[in-house]
């Protein structure tokens, strides 16, 4: 972790059953604590394992607290809850981006007045590159961001949706598009709302 306590560099190494290195990555994270950095490194390992199609993995770390939070049914601090829930899913061999979890956390953070943490949460989600647009939690996440008046984060989710192939083939297409359009207008983003109307035919 950097001396200013705001950045950590994680190194992830994949080994096969013989101990031979088969893949790896190094990534810098913006974090607020050593524990958050350790959890972010574990999450990077889970994301890479998912991309590589690995279903039987063993994650090793020199941070006992990070491992315990990842595999035990504990009540984590709110600022690391999103990462912990994702890692617990990974430990149960069912990792995938669950937008419903993100929606719940946005609302919980909003009630605590932790608005910057909401933006960091969405920024972290954005780093994944794409989101599952067929996830039933997408509409809830959009509504949660609008409810907490996180304009920039709402726009980030919209851009993520476009990069992820958002279109009329998804079941909640018209509903979510309308929520986005009306919500962004309320947040003062008239231009983007008009773009949604024109591109996605929101009535």
UniProtKB/TrEMBL annotation:
A molecular function GO annotation: RNA-DNA hybrid ribonuclease activity
Source lineage: Eukaryota, Viridiplantae, Streptophyta, Embryophyta, Tracheophyta
Pfam families: RVT_3
GO biological process: chloroplast organization; Group II intron splicing
RNase H type-1 domain ranges (all copies): 6-69
InterPro entries: RNaseH_domain, THA8-like, TPR-like_helical_dom_sf
Protein name: RNase H type-1 domain-containing protein
Domain of life: Eukaryota
